Input
Amino acid sequence: MEVIYCSRCHVTDVPLMKYSKGKTGIKQYYCCRECNTKRMKKYFDTRVGKKTVKAALKRANTKFPSHLRARSKLNYAVRVGTVTKPGACSVCERTDKRIEGHHMDYSKPLDVQWLCSGCHADSERVYN
Output
């Protein structure tokens, strides 16, 4: 049986993401979350990466205006002090990562679950 490991740090006991090289998808490689985050941060610091992010945000905001309204209302409420942002994730209790608000229902912009960036990414995969 083939052992699947991260192609960058060679760790085997963490969840891995599967990627394909080339258009045919024949050559596949696996990457752990930490290595993928480093790789993406490096890409987003480039000119092409910044342009890609800006275009994706523009597409998302025009496709889902309710999401943009809900995020804006929540950000304003946190800034004004109406809503208090906790210091720890409500799922894993981590305090070392950025805490983000997860909307289960965008029609209720102030009703959010506060998650760290890792749990928020996992919840997006589960719910969408």
